[in-house]
Amino acid sequence: YLFLFLLFAALFIVFSFFVKRGDLYQLDHYVEQTMTVSPNSLWYWGSWVLAYLYLPLIVVLISIFCLFLLRRQPFETKLLLLCLGSWGFSEFFLKPFFQISCPSSPLGKFFSLQEVANSPLLHFYALKYPCYPSGHTVGYVIFFGYLAFLSFLYLKNKFWRWIVISLAVLVIILIGPSRVYLHVHWLSDVIAGYLLGFTILMG
After folding, report:
1. Bond prior to 106 in cis (omega within 30° of 0)
2. pTM score, two decimals?
3. Are 183 and 35 a contacting pair, CB within 8 Å?
4. What is the pLDDT of residues 70-105, one digit of tens each?
5. CA torsion, points 34, 98, 95, 146, in degrees to nearest 10?
6. Which of 37, 39, 76, 180 has its CA 20 to 30 A from that of 85?
């Protein structure tokens, strides 16, 4: 795991250097401009479902944390706290550090507003806060990767174990493209989110 951690960390640092230098500017804008949203498509509604998963995820995370505390499982508790702390670091330190703004298209702003449940504070955060790396992507890689890890350790039934792991992997794969599709992130935001998410997960 140490090798993978160092590999993903190095890739994230190098990739961020090129993004900050502006090397992916044209590619990001090309992808954003050519991405057509179809409200009648399955991918559109699937992207919405993925976007709103963060709301029940908060409840699930709190429940898992309380369960570990009650069962006195310090390893799992510390691991969960480390994952959450690292995600918070990416949201509240790395995003202001890189200062890369979100797509400014009206469609992207509309989707950002819809995702934050009509809260004025979250509206400001969604529209004004930097977008690099993608918080959804980082968070979903961490959470669903952690869920797959716990399933592998504790689910004794092989069928359900692989069902849960397969669903977790599917969500991780789909969350990135869905963020680009909804025009709320650049392609580079999502790639960086995957790299950082796997860095944290392997750490």
Report:
1. no
2. 0.86
3. yes
4. 887 777 777 777 777 877 888 888 888 888 888 876
5. 80
6. 180
Measured distance CA(135)–CA(110) in Å, rounded = 18
Q: Please choose, from the candidates 201, 182, 200, 179, the residue with its C-alpha nearest in 3D space to the C-alpha of residue 190.
A: 179
Residue 136 contacts residue 177 (beta carbons within 8 Å): no
Write the CA distances from 77 to 81, 126, 159, 162, 173, integer angstroms: 6, 30, 26, 23, 26
The alpha carbon of residue 36 and the mean position of all alpha carbons in its chain are separated, in whole angstroms, by 22
- 123 burial class (0-12, 13-18, 19+ CB within 10 angstroms)? middle
DSSP secondary structure letter of residue 37: -
Compute the chain's Rg from CA coordinates: 17
| CA–CA distances in Å: residue 163 to residues 119, 157, 160 | 36, 10, 5
Q: What is the pLDDT of residue 127?
A: 46
Provide φ and ψ at 103, rounded to 5°. -55, 135
How far apart, in whole angstroms, are the C-alpha atoms of residue 19 and residue 29? 13
Joined together, the tokens standing for residue 46 give 């699937």
The Cα–Cα gap between 10 and 5 comes to 9
The CA-based diameter of the chain, rounded to the nearest angstrom, is 51
Query: What is d(CA 146, CA 83) in angstroms, rounded to the nearest whole number?
Result: 8
